[in-house]
Amino acid sequence: MPPVIVYHYSFSPYARRILWYLRLRGIPYLTCAQPPTLPRPDVRLLGLKHRRIPIVAIGGDVYLDTRLILRKLARLPPSPSPAMQHPPSGTQAAGIERLLSAWSTDGGLFSRAMQLLPGADLPLLKNKAFQRDRADFVGHSTNAAGAAALRPEAMAELRDAFALLESTFFADGRDWILGGQGPTTADIEAVWLFHWLSGLKGALDPATISPALFPSVFAWVDRFQRQLSTAKTEAGTVSGEEARDRILGQASQTKDEVEVDANEMLVKFYGLQQGSVVEVWPVDSGSAHVDVGRLLGLDSLEIVFETDAGVRVHAPRHGFRQRPVISSNL
Ligand SMILES: N[C@@H](CCC(=O)N[C@@H](CS)C(=O)NCC(=O)O)C(=O)O
């Protein structure tokens, strides 16, 4: 089993998706604790400017974006895993899982959920340095009055989301999104925002969203939490230097797995080749943080590049942009 290292801070809901998956599958891991705001020198040690959390190393490979990370973790033994199964590819269930992922991340639910964070109960939100940091993350600044004005609209969007789950998936009394005896990755794709908000004092307006109004959704969140409480895995901690050394000390398990696909439109458009110096960045958030590296592979699903620290990094094509760097001293 290649060692898994998760760079994260404890209140990151995206990081929890990964930590829950590891725990429910019983995969041992190490965490490299990160501050909630920049700078993050441990990430810079990997040669990365990427600001989003989590970042996950599996052996000698580093992965960005939880959607790619979950796909890669699925390949760790035992595969197929007895707990926390992925719906088999080519099935309607796999389609549902993908759509739930698009709903929560690309569909804007996460951004709406952030607008519900309760300023009165979370002192960090009032901290000026934190506000500046998050303005860099989302690409614009919001003052307290502006944030308060967004709450009613965000609450209505989240009510729609609770209502959708209550009145469709859970309308037949099932325990899990895809039915069956236990949670699957479709539950992870769906539950994380509901789990996050329902656990945050002051986030939800009880007249709009409450266990009385959406009993099945709240019961599902509790059921998921009970599974987490009984699941066990080994987890340790590691410093940034140690994490970097461990990653560099592991042979890549994916060498030659992703090649520069000459038929990819982007490859043809820019005339990319293995070794081309490329810039890579996410388009939806944290976009001001552009990484540069030597291209190792690019296909329909991911781009692989090597940073100046010698680290092999994978980013998904979906939600990321890539282009060649005309002049660079790499
Ligand atoms: N699509 C990304 C989103 C990750 C994301 O937005 N993470 C948040 C933390 S929950 C973040 O990076 N916030 C800014 C920061 O921590 O610097 C993923 O799936 O990994």
UniProtKB/TrEMBL annotation:
It comes from Echria macrotheca. Residues 2-81 form the GST N-terminal domain. InterPro entries: DUF7962, Glutathione-S-Trfase_C_sf, Glutathione_S-Trfase_N, Thioredoxin-like_sf. This is GST N-terminal domain-containing protein. Pfam families: DUF7962, GST_N_3.
